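Support request, please re-run this one:
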Amino acid sequence: MPSLYGLKHWYTRRLTFLINASVRHGISPDTWTLVGVIAGALGAGAIALGWWPLAFLLLAARLGGANLDGAVARARGVSRPFGFVLNEIGDRASDLLMMAGLVGLGVRIGAPRATIVALLIAALAATLPTFISLSAAGAGAPRLNGGPLGKTERCLIAVVASAVPSWLAPVAWLLIAGSILTAGARLARAHRLLPSPGPLPEGVSPLGAGPAE
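Re-run finished. Output below.
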Protein backbone atom coordinates (compact mmCIF):
# COMPACT_ATOMS: atom_id res chain seq x y z
CA MET A 1 0.00 0.00 0.00
CA PRO A 2 1.21 3.59 -0.61
CA SER A 3 3.24 5.10 2.21
CA LEU A 4 6.03 7.52 3.02
CA TYR A 5 8.39 4.55 3.30
CA GLY A 6 9.09 5.05 -0.40
CA LEU A 7 11.02 8.20 0.56
CA LYS A 8 13.56 6.17 2.55
CA HIS A 9 16.00 5.72 -0.32
CA TRP A 10 15.68 9.39 -1.30
CA TYR A 11 16.39 10.41 2.30
CA THR A 12 19.33 8.03 2.59
CA ARG A 13 20.86 9.52 -0.56
CA ARG A 14 20.67 12.95 1.07
CA LEU A 15 22.79 11.50 3.90
CA THR A 16 25.52 10.14 1.61
CA PHE A 17 28.05 12.60 3.05
CA LEU A 18 27.54 11.07 6.50
CA ILE A 19 27.87 7.56 5.09
CA ASN A 20 31.14 8.48 3.39
CA ALA A 21 32.44 10.16 6.55
CA SER A 22 31.55 7.08 8.59
CA VAL A 23 33.48 4.87 6.17
CA ARG A 24 36.52 7.17 6.23
CA HIS A 25 36.63 7.43 10.01
CA GLY A 26 35.52 3.87 10.82
CA ILE A 27 32.37 4.95 12.65
CA SER A 28 30.37 1.94 13.82
CA PRO A 29 26.83 1.46 12.47
CA ASP A 30 25.77 0.97 16.09
CA THR A 31 26.74 4.58 16.75
CA TRP A 32 24.02 5.68 14.34
CA THR A 33 21.53 3.37 16.02
CA LEU A 34 22.32 5.13 19.29
CA VAL A 35 22.08 8.56 17.64
CA GLY A 36 18.60 7.62 16.40
CA VAL A 37 17.45 6.57 19.87
CA ILE A 38 18.84 9.73 21.50
CA ALA A 39 17.20 11.92 18.85
CA GLY A 40 13.96 10.00 19.40
CA ALA A 41 14.13 10.59 23.15
CA LEU A 42 14.80 14.31 22.72
CA GLY A 43 12.07 14.46 20.09
CA ALA A 44 9.64 12.91 22.55
CA GLY A 45 10.46 15.66 25.03
CA ALA A 46 9.89 18.30 22.37
CA ILE A 47 6.53 16.72 21.51
CA ALA A 48 5.46 16.72 25.15
CA LEU A 49 6.33 20.42 25.40
CA GLY A 50 4.61 21.27 22.13
CA TRP A 51 7.83 22.50 20.52
CA TRP A 52 6.85 21.12 17.13
CA PRO A 53 9.62 22.68 14.94
CA LEU A 54 12.25 21.13 17.21
CA ALA A 55 10.26 17.88 17.33
CA PHE A 56 10.24 17.81 13.53
CA LEU A 57 14.03 18.22 13.33
CA LEU A 58 14.71 15.65 16.05
CA LEU A 59 12.35 13.05 14.61
CA ALA A 60 13.95 13.59 11.20
CA ALA A 61 17.28 12.88 12.91
CA ARG A 62 15.71 9.80 14.53
CA LEU A 63 14.72 8.50 11.10
CA GLY A 64 18.15 9.45 9.76
CA GLY A 65 19.86 7.36 12.43
CA ALA A 66 17.58 4.44 11.60
CA ASN A 67 18.58 4.73 7.93
CA LEU A 68 22.28 5.31 8.50
CA ASP A 69 23.01 2.29 10.66
CA GLY A 70 22.13 -0.14 7.87
CA ALA A 71 23.61 2.03 5.11
CA VAL A 72 26.92 2.43 6.96
CA ALA A 73 27.06 -1.29 7.75
CA ARG A 74 26.69 -2.11 4.06
CA ALA A 75 29.14 0.58 2.94
CA ARG A 76 31.80 -0.62 5.40
CA GLY A 77 31.10 -4.29 4.74
CA VAL A 78 30.44 -4.98 8.42
CA SER A 79 26.79 -6.11 8.26
CA ARG A 80 26.00 -8.76 10.84
CA PRO A 81 22.83 -10.42 12.13
CA PHE A 82 23.18 -8.89 15.58
CA GLY A 83 23.22 -5.46 13.95
CA PHE A 84 19.70 -6.22 12.72
CA VAL A 85 18.71 -6.99 16.31
CA LEU A 86 20.17 -3.71 17.59
CA ASN A 87 18.48 -1.78 14.80
CA GLU A 88 15.09 -3.25 15.67
CA ILE A 89 15.59 -2.56 19.39
CA GLY A 90 16.55 1.03 18.60
CA ASP A 91 13.52 1.51 16.36
CA ARG A 92 11.13 0.10 18.92
CA ALA A 93 12.63 2.15 21.75
CA SER A 94 12.34 5.31 19.65
CA ASP A 95 8.74 4.50 18.79
CA LEU A 96 7.78 3.94 22.42
CA LEU A 97 9.52 7.15 23.49
CA MET A 98 7.66 9.10 20.83
CA MET A 99 4.32 7.69 21.95
CA ALA A 100 5.27 8.53 25.54
CA GLY A 101 5.85 12.09 24.33
CA LEU A 102 2.28 12.22 23.01
CA VAL A 103 0.96 10.93 26.33
CA GLY A 104 3.08 13.53 28.13
CA LEU A 105 1.62 16.24 25.88
CA GLY A 106 -1.88 15.08 26.74
CA VAL A 107 -1.14 15.18 30.47
CA ARG A 108 0.53 18.61 30.19
CA ILE A 109 -2.45 20.24 28.47
CA GLY A 110 -4.99 18.52 30.73
CA ALA A 111 -6.55 16.36 28.02
CA PRO A 112 -9.58 14.26 29.05
CA ARG A 113 -8.87 10.89 30.60
CA ALA A 114 -10.46 9.18 27.59
CA THR A 115 -7.89 10.84 25.33
CA ILE A 116 -5.00 9.71 27.54
CA VAL A 117 -6.36 6.15 27.51
CA ALA A 118 -6.74 6.30 23.72
CA LEU A 119 -3.11 7.45 23.40
CA LEU A 120 -1.98 4.53 25.56
CA ILE A 121 -3.98 2.15 23.37
CA ALA A 122 -2.40 3.81 20.33
CA ALA A 123 1.06 3.14 21.77
CA LEU A 124 0.15 -0.54 22.05
CA ALA A 125 -1.44 -0.65 18.58
CA ALA A 126 1.65 0.96 17.05
CA THR A 127 3.65 -2.15 17.98
CA LEU A 128 1.42 -4.45 15.90
CA PRO A 129 2.87 -3.77 12.42
CA THR A 130 6.41 -4.49 13.59
CA PHE A 131 5.25 -7.55 15.52
CA ILE A 132 3.72 -8.92 12.31
CA SER A 133 6.83 -8.06 10.27
CA LEU A 134 9.26 -9.70 12.69
CA SER A 135 7.05 -12.76 13.09
CA ALA A 136 6.88 -13.14 9.31
CA ALA A 137 10.66 -12.64 9.01
CA GLY A 138 11.15 -15.37 11.60
CA ALA A 139 9.10 -17.68 9.37
CA GLY A 140 11.27 -16.88 6.34
CA ALA A 141 9.56 -13.89 4.71
CA PRO A 142 11.45 -10.70 3.85
CA ARG A 143 11.36 -7.93 6.49
CA LEU A 144 8.11 -6.13 5.64
CA ASN A 145 7.98 -2.35 5.87
CA GLY A 146 5.79 0.47 4.70
CA GLY A 147 2.30 1.74 5.34
CA PRO A 148 -0.27 2.88 5.23
CA LEU A 149 0.93 3.91 8.69
CA GLY A 150 4.55 3.01 9.33
CA LYS A 151 7.13 4.72 11.52
CA THR A 152 7.58 7.66 9.12
CA GLU A 153 3.85 8.40 9.18
CA ARG A 154 3.80 8.03 12.97
CA CYS A 155 6.57 10.60 13.29
CA LEU A 156 4.74 13.05 11.04
CA ILE A 157 1.47 12.57 12.92
CA ALA A 158 3.25 13.13 16.25
CA VAL A 159 4.68 16.43 14.99
CA VAL A 160 1.22 17.55 13.83
CA ALA A 161 -0.23 16.65 17.23
CA SER A 162 2.47 18.66 19.02
CA ALA A 163 1.65 21.64 16.80
CA VAL A 164 -2.13 21.31 17.32
CA PRO A 165 -2.70 19.64 20.73
CA SER A 166 -6.46 20.02 20.37
CA TRP A 167 -6.26 17.24 17.77
CA LEU A 168 -4.86 14.71 20.24
CA ALA A 169 -8.05 12.64 20.47
CA PRO A 170 -8.49 12.17 16.69
CA VAL A 171 -4.75 11.62 16.38
CA ALA A 172 -4.96 8.79 18.91
CA TRP A 173 -7.77 7.09 16.98
CA LEU A 174 -5.98 7.66 13.68
CA LEU A 175 -2.91 5.92 15.10
CA ILE A 176 -5.02 3.03 16.38
CA ALA A 177 -6.94 2.53 13.13
CA GLY A 178 -3.87 3.06 10.94
CA SER A 179 -1.74 0.66 12.96
CA ILE A 180 -4.37 -2.07 12.81
CA LEU A 181 -4.83 -1.54 9.06
CA THR A 182 -1.06 -1.64 8.51
CA ALA A 183 -0.72 -4.79 10.59
CA GLY A 184 -3.49 -6.43 8.58
CA ALA A 185 -1.90 -5.41 5.27
CA ARG A 186 1.48 -6.81 6.35
CA LEU A 187 -0.11 -10.02 7.59
CA ALA A 188 -1.88 -10.49 4.26
CA ARG A 189 1.36 -9.82 2.39
CA ALA A 190 3.26 -12.26 4.60
CA HIS A 191 0.61 -14.89 3.86
CA ARG A 192 1.19 -14.39 0.14
CA LEU A 193 4.98 -14.48 0.43
CA LEU A 194 5.36 -17.49 2.71
CA PRO A 195 5.20 -20.90 1.04
CA SER A 196 2.11 -23.03 1.40
CA PRO A 197 2.49 -26.13 3.54
CA GLY A 198 3.41 -29.31 1.72
CA PRO A 199 2.82 -32.91 2.76
CA LEU A 200 4.67 -33.91 5.92
CA PRO A 201 7.25 -36.66 5.72
CA GLU A 202 6.02 -39.98 7.05
CA GLY A 203 6.40 -40.26 10.80
CA VAL A 204 6.62 -36.50 11.49
CA SER A 205 3.96 -34.98 13.73
CA PRO A 206 1.97 -31.93 12.50
CA LEU A 207 3.51 -29.77 15.23
CA GLY A 208 7.05 -30.61 14.21
CA ALA A 209 7.78 -31.96 17.68
CA GLY A 210 9.28 -35.19 16.45
CA PRO A 211 7.98 -38.55 15.30
CA ALA A 212 4.25 -38.99 15.35
CA GLU A 213 3.00 -41.40 17.96
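The chain has a mean pLDDT of 89. Residues 28 and 69 are 8 Å apart (CA to CA).
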